[in-house]
Write a structure and sequence with these properties.
The structure holds 2 protein chains of 2 kinds. In chain A, 45% of the residues lie in helices and 14% in strands. Chain A is an alpha+beta fold. Chain A folds into 2 domains: 96 residues, OB fold (Dihydrolipoamide Acetyltransferase, E2P); 195 residues, no CATH class. In chain A, helix 2 packs antiparallel against helix 11 and helix 4 packs antiparallel against helix 5. Chain A is globular, with a radius of gyration of 19 Å. Chain B is of the alpha/beta class. In chain B, helix 7 links the parallel strand 5 and strand 6. The radius of gyration of chain B is 29 Å and the shape is globular. Classes of the chains: A alpha+beta, B alpha/beta. At the A-B interface, helix 4, helix 8 and helix 10 of A face helix 1, strand 2 and helix 2 of B.
Chain lengths: 306, 517
């Protein structure tokens, strides 16, 4: 296998670590997770997937993944990796190295245009978002902020009904910038919902990245947001799936998949990206993951703009 | 009664979990169900729904569980069976991304899309492509086995609507920098190509990249476009698009020789633009091209050189030589031919790219006798029996007779590896091959060629000369340099282009004939 792209963060990690040995942790059709001795995950993705932090995109079709054995040992060298028992080698010496981190360079978007984009995102979420996760809680945050928009097509489900009370407390504390208050509710919030990355974790990922972006643009305290993000990750350890833990850890460092980052960046920086297209790309991620992530982004924006 | 299915340390993607949840709920006799990962809150929700138990309490967040309220144990068995079935199904089908299954849902998902790639069984393609054109989308039709009548109808509709309908059997295009199907990673630049030949277009575009220039657009037309029945509709449409395209300064047209009336139509259109136009109607009428004010070419490589010269504002000159010095070429030829045994007389061309095979035969002509082929230059050299080859032979292994039930050899090189075993014997003097890199191609075609030749050589008593060219760029994912090294490590001579590889073969065969005389 040849890699065509690799995240800069992963390249840096390979360069810094003395021993780069992994075990195949989980295998999906379009992704393979590898875990190191300390329980950290890195991911191999097919070309169909967006580059994510700590990931490598391989050239070609997912057929190559079929031959990789579960629990195989993997050795990383300067230019590639070797799946010892599967007898497969991955060469990443020619892969393009790309950072998967929030970058907010350029002209800041004014408040009016931010609201236009938020509404674009909201409309797509209401029209197309998968509502079997916690997306219907969009109504809850709008009611809390006194925003009156008809969103009747988002119907509450079992998950929403169960978590709505805690969700409201989290929203209230975020609105009041009481991050300690947010942290106190986390044990009752993290790791809940359907999916390999539970819905509330996707929500928190979207919210963290938006808060980090907002702080970087001078709208919030950077230190306080960083502390909150770190606390969210710390509370996730052991309370949610390994894949989700990794996602929250990366988000606390301002990292996420390319299109997820572009959506957040486009809400703060003036650029030529097709915002609707990006939102739809994110929505297409997983079953409810994309919608739950965007709910987090939307909520963080609503709380700061209304 | 409440029943459980637990899988420790099991990971299923979100779509799979959601699907399982929905499907299991629909089984008769299931009153309620919860499917998820064993996080504390998911277990708490199960308890709230009356689906909890001590068994669930023991789960970790990385364990998968189903808890179901069912009428009896037999129903739970059905649930587990259904879950296993769904997991098996999901493993072999889609990933976790939503993939629309109809054009309607695809357009709803991405309403701003203005280009579609269609790769379905040819007999069903017309309706789908027609629908796409009705929705004002340009189309690249990868499928083959589309009737000429259907192709004409689709292209007429596309022309009426000012759209591109590239294909059928269109394997190569690069539109606004996005490679489609088989295409190479080339630099952006001032040269636009309209090509009716897939590997021919890839060869020219990669050579333009290697010569330091770049491509604005690469538009494919499908191989039948310049036949009388179709009338060159898409080459004309593509040409007009490049005439209008501000980023295109030089236009290159590539095709096998068109029918005379189509050639006339295209050359008439060529004379309408002030942009310089390079035309490679491989083996076509050079004087007619000159008369239209365009630049005719001798080879695909010559087309690339002329286009790059024109893009730089230089006067194009014919490129008919080698990148190596004459002395270096002579040294290679002398050394290699000296090692041949008297019984080694024959040439074998084993190509994955049809246009490259065609170019090789046209360049070699009758210089050392006729060349037998499955795409012969004249009927008398058509190969009847592919199992026993005699004389000089050049094969296009991408043709239908080699691809029934297996992928194109650019994707699956085993077709050619198998032919190496049967077609190279101790009476063969020189073997010519192409190696095509880029998107769509096999992940390491050079290694496949090198490995196959290594195995063949073990069984031969004589030293056969192997000559190759690589159609690829440094940006291609397969790694151009590593590909070249892999071939050279096996003693294969790697030339910078198909044309130069053919010229080297010509020199080897000429020298061999002299030696024999």
């Amino acid at each position: 296998m040849n890699a065509i792209r690799i995240s800069k963060e992963l390249m840096d990690q390979f360069a810094q670590k003395k021993s780069n040995r992994y075990v195949v942790h989980s295998i999906f059709k379009e992704a393979i997770n590898l875990m190191d001795d300390s329980g950290e995950l890195i991911t191999l993705l097919t070309e169909n997937k967006d580059l994510a932090p700590m990931s490598i995109v391989i050239f070609g079709r997912s057929a190559y993944f079929r031959n990789i054995l579960a629990n195989d040992e993997v050795e990383v060298t300067n230019s590639g990796m070797r799946f010892i028992h599967s007898q497969i080698e991955l060469d990443f010496s020619s892969a393009v190295v790309t950072p998967c981190i929030l970058m907010l360079e350029g002209k800041a978007l004014d408040s009016e245009n931010q609201i236009i984009k938020m509404n674009q995102m909201r409309n797509i979420l209401c029209d197309r978002g998968e509502s079997s996760g916690i997306l219907p809680l969009l109504n809850t945050v709008e009611r809390y902020k006194g925003i009156s928009i008809d969103s009747s097509n988002l119907r509450m489900n079992t998950y929403c009904e169960f978590i709505q009370g805690v969700f409201t407390e989290i929203i209230k504390n975020l609105d009041q910038k009481n991050f300690e208050g947010v942290v106190s509710w986390l044990p009752k919030f993290i790791g809940f919902g359907p999916g390999l990355t539970p819905s509330t974790d996707d929500f928190l990922t979207g919210a963290i990245l938006t808060l980090i972006a907002s702080a970087a643009m001078g709208e919030d305290s950077t230190e306080a947001v960083e502390e909150l993000a770190q606390n969210i990750y710390s509370f996730s350890v052991g309370r949610t799936t390994k894949v989700s833990e990794t996602m929250l850890k990366q988000a606390a460092l301002g990292r996420a998949s390319e299109n997820h980052l572009k959506v957040v960046q486009s809400l703060f920086i003036s650029n030529n990206l097709n915002f609707e297209f990006l939102v739809k790309r994110v929505l297409a991620n997983g079953a409810t993951s994309g919608a739950d992530f965007l709910l987090g982004v939307y909520c963080a924006m609503v709380l700061s703009k209304y | 009664m409440i029943c459980y299915e637990v899988r420790k340390n099991s990971y299923y993607d979100s779509v799979t979990l959601m699907l399982i949840s929905k499907e299991v709920k629909n089984i008769e006799g299931v009153k309620d169900v919860m499917v998820g990962m064993g996080t504390d809150l998911n277990k708490e929700l199960s308890n709230n729904l009356g689906l909890g138990s001590e068994k669930l309490d023991e789960l970790s967040p990385n364990d998968f569980f189903i808890s179901a309220d069912v009428v009896d144990e037999a129903i739970m068995e059905q649930v587990v069976e259904r879950v296993n079935g769904l997991l098996k199904e999901k493993k072999s089908s889609a990933g976790s991304d939503y993939r629309p299954v109809t054009i309607k849902s695809a357009l709803e998902m991405m309403p701003e899309a203005n280009m579609a790639v269609v790769s379905i069984a040819g007999q069903y393609a017309e309706d789908e492509v027609s629908r796409l054109l009705d929705n004002d989308l340009h189309v690249m039709l990868f499928s083959d086995n589309v009737s000429v009548e259907a192709e004409l109808r689709l292209k007429q509709k596309a022309v009426e609507k000012g759209l591109l309908m590239m294909g059928p059997d269109c394997g190569t295009a690069i539109i606004n920098g996005v490679p489609l199907a088989f295409a190479n990673v080339v630099k952006k630049g001032p040269i636009g190509i309209v090509g009716a030949s897939g590997t021919g277009t890839q060869e020219v575009s990669t050579l333009i990249d290697k010569l330091g220039s770049g491509l604005s657009q690469v538009i494919g037309t499908g191989g039948r476009d310049l036949k009388t029945e179709i009338g060159g509709l898409m080459m004309l449409q593509g040409f007009e698009a490049l005439m209008r395209d501000e980023s295109t300064e030089v236009i290159v047209l590539i095709s096998k020789p068109p029918s005379p009336e189509v050639a006339e139509k295209i050359l008439s259109k060529v004379s309408e633009t002030k942009k310089p136009v390079v035309v490679d109607f491989i083996g076509g009428d050079i004087e007619a091209i000159k008369a239209a004010g365009a630049y005719p070419c001798l080879t695909l490589e010559d087309a690339a050189h002329k286009a790059v010269a024109l893009a730089k504002g230089d006067t194009p000159v014919d490129f008919t030589g080698f990148s190596l010095s004459d002395d270096e070429v002579e040294s290679i030829v002398n050394k290699k031919v000296a090692a041949l045994k008297p019984e080694q007389k024959y040439f074998r061309g084993l190509f994955t790219g049809g246009t490259l095979a065609d170019e090789a035969m046209k360049m070699l002509g009758q210089s050392f006798g006729g060349i037998y082929s499955n795409i012969p230059l004249s009927h008398e050299y058509a190969i009847e029996n592919l199992t026993t080859l005699t004389g000089h032979v050049c094969l296009d292994l991408g043709e239908d007779q080699f691809t029934v039930g297996r992928p194109h050899p650019m994707i699956d090189p085993s077709t050619r590896s198998d032919r190496f075993k049967t077609d190279i014997s101790d009476d063969v003097a020189v073997v010519l091959v192409d190696v095509v890199l880029g998107y769509g191609s096999h992940e390491n075609p050079a290694k496949e060629v090198a490995d196959a030749i290594h195995e063949v050589n073990k069984k031969l008593d004589n030293n056969v000369i192997y000559v190759a060219s690589i159609t690829g760029t440094e940006g291609d994912p397969q790694d151009l340099k590593a590909s070249q090294s892999a071939l050279e490590a096996e003693g294969i001579i790697v030339m910078p282009s198909n044309a130069q590889a053919v010229r080297l073969v010509q020199k080897i065969m000429d020298q061999l004939n002299k030696k024999g005389a």
